Amino acid sequence: EPRSPWCCLAWTLVIAAMNCLVFLLNLLLMLVIFTVVLLPTIVVVYFGFQCHSQVLHSSARYCKSILDDNSSSALIILGFVIMSPLLVVAMAIYCSLARRLQLLVCCQPYSLALYKGGRWCHRGEGAPCCARGCNTQLKAWV
User: Fold this and answer.
1) Is 79 exposed, middle or buried (0-12, 13-18, 19+ CB in 10 A)?
2) Averaged pLDDT of the chain
């Protein structure tokens, strides 16, 4: 049966807040994983651009004694070449963790706010979901 307008509004706000929290958790997890995995690329490209004479031309000691323009260009190229495989690794790690933690199943449908009778249940290993019948054969991914 439908909820009253005020109850519907309150439940809509609760569900929206919960979905935003799940989204922010996913975003934070993705940001941490990509930052850690892509750190070698970031460092290599940073030092390449910092020591190149036509970009930043730092006066640091290692730029003068170790890195010239050719080696700085090589660092920049190396950084961009190793970025592609590291992006794949970072995405694989994120997808694996999201699947194991079942983070993408935590988003709630707004039909819970509109109608009474929807219930909270645990599908599989404890991921919360909202369903009228709690169909255990429904999976987020295969």
Assistant:
1) buried
2) 79
